[in-house]
Design a protein that fits this description.
By secondary structure, this protein is an alpha+beta fold. Helices cover 31% and strands 25% of the residues. The longest helix is centred in the N-terminal third of the chain and has 21 residues, at 3-23. One of its GO terms (molecular function) is metalloaminopeptidase activity.
Amino acid sequence: MDEEGLDLLFQAGRIAARVKERVYGLVREGVRLIDVCEAVEEMIESEGGKPAFPCNVCVDEVAAHYSPPPGDFSTVPPNALVKVDMGVHLEGYIVDTAISVSLSGEKQQLVLAAEEALRAAVRFIRAGVRLGDVGATIQQAIQKAGFKPVRNLTGHEISRYSLHGGASIPNIAVPDPRRIAKGAVYAIEPFVCPPRAAGEVVSADAPTIFRLDARRVPTEKLRPDERALLEYIDKSFRGLPYSPRWLSASNVPDPLSVHDRLVRAGRVHKYPVLVEKTGQPVAQAECTVYVEEDGCRVLT
C-alpha cells in the first residue's frame, strides 16, 4: 500500500472511531433498528466517509449480517444484547469496527469478555505470528472469562474495495501455519456466547445484505430495468456490500421489485443472517488493525 492509500486508510479509521463513540448513545429499549442503522450511516457520511457496508444491528442470538430492510420497523427489546457493526471507506480503503451494548446486567459479562479477547489479540498481533496462534489467544481469553467463542465466525483480512480480502482470523485455536503479514490490514472480531451455547452460528431468515460481482453477471438476458439497476449497483458500490435501502436513489422504477427478481435469479450474492445455533445471546467486539514489525496499530 502506498503512502496515499495509507493516509486514506488512517483517515477512514479516525472517522470510524469518532462515529463508534457516538453509537453507544443510540442503543436503548424501544428504538427502531432501522433508525440506528440510518443514523450510523448518516454520521459516517457527515464525517466525510462512505459506509463500506450496511450498518448491522444484531439483537441477542442474531450474531451477524442483519441490517433492517425497507419497511422493517422492529425495535430493541427489553434486556437486549445489541451488536452494532459498521464500516467506513475512503476511495475503497476500508476499516471495520463493532461494539456490543447490553441492556441487561447479566449479558454485560459477555460484552466484557468479547472486549478483553479483542484486547488480548491486539496485544499479541505482530508481523510473523501464526494465524492459528491468534485464534488460540482469543479462545483462551474468552474461556478464562467463563464463556465460549463462536467457532465458525472469524475476523478477516481487508484490501482495497474488498471487505474479505484474504486470510481469515480465527476465534479458536486452529492448525493454520500461515503468518500475519507486515503491512496487512485485518479486522479482528471475537464473538462470545454462554458456555451452554453451541458456540456455532447457522443461517436463518431472508438475507438483508447483498453484493454484486459485475464480472460474473451475464447481461445479455437481462430486462432493461434489471440492467439499469445492476449498472447503478456496480457504479455506486464497486463490489462492496449494500442494502436494498440504498437503491431508492437509482431512478429505476420500483427498484425493490427489480432487485427481488435479480436475487431470485442468482444475479447478486446474498449474505445470510447468522444466528447462534441454540438461540443463546452473542456479544461481539471488533477493530481494524494495521500490522507493523513489532505490533499493530489500532485504526478504529
